[in-house]
Task: structure prediction
Amino acid sequence: MTKKKTKIPNACPIVNAFHLIGGKWKPYIIYYLQKKNQRFGKLHFLIPDISRKVLTEQLREMESDELIHRKKFDESPPRVEYSLTEKAKEVIPILEALGEWSFKIHKEKMTESLDEEIYIDYCQDYL
Amino acid sequence: MTKKKTKIPNACPIVNAFHLIGGKWKPYIIYYLQKKNQRFGKLHFLIPDISRKVLTEQLREMESDELIHRKKFDESPPRVEYSLTEKAKEVIPILEALGEWSFKIHKEKMTESLDEEIYIDYCQDYL
DNA sequence: TGTCATGGTTACATTTTCGTTACTACTTAT
DNA sequence: ATAAGTAGTAACGAAAATGTAACCATGACA
Result:
């Protein structure tokens, strides 16, 4: 058995999807923007564990993928508002289905646990 | 605006889902196992760019997450067969929806390109 | 007796992703 | 004159993920 050498030019569409909306922070960004348009600072407050550098990077990436829209107001101090595009809004039901699936698995595995209630509260909010 | 310090015990269910089925290789593993149960060596042939070390790691992880089943035959040379569990099979329609969504975005962006046909062929197969 | 095949494992190196800290430009309020 | 607030950026470093190359145990087969 020798190596297959037919390189796929772009990754498979599912891998592609993970590039668009996966990673450590993009799900949170989508989550908070889906509820409400947000300014940079507020987004950083809502997702405090991300560094501002990485938040900027992720937002720029999502902007160039046309998943979010960046609206800059010509004011001072500067104001920038981020919102989801239609493309991004279309994927939300799919993400919710994914969340429900993983939540079901999680519940099956962890029958007891002190953190369980907190997790469930958080998930109810999310799902 | 100070830092929010309420740590979430486990990540949000969507982030959790990405741990289960995301990453560089798990989508491919799911894809090939969904078509047909596979032995370790065949899987490595089908996904030639993964190293055997990482393939082992990913398979072990998915096994402990109960997404795949590992069946070892007592033969020589050894034979091991991997298959998807019911849990994993449940997520496939969701993954397909995700793939269609990202494929649609991809098509909108790339109107021309030489690789396009190859990509589409690959995707048709995938979707 | 020694080579082959399978399904790995181990130690180490590299790449990719993410974080820390300090800094900037602009304008209004004190 | 200077401090404060917003939305960043730049240089550097740490951590996480992945890759490379060599090795192992088993039994069949020549």
Q: What stands out?
A: Chain A has one domain: 13-126. Residues 39-41, 52-53, 56, 72, 75-80 of chain A lie near DNA strand D (CB under 10 Å from a C1'). Residues 30 and 78 of chain A are 23 Å apart (CA to CA). Chain A has a mean pLDDT of 84.
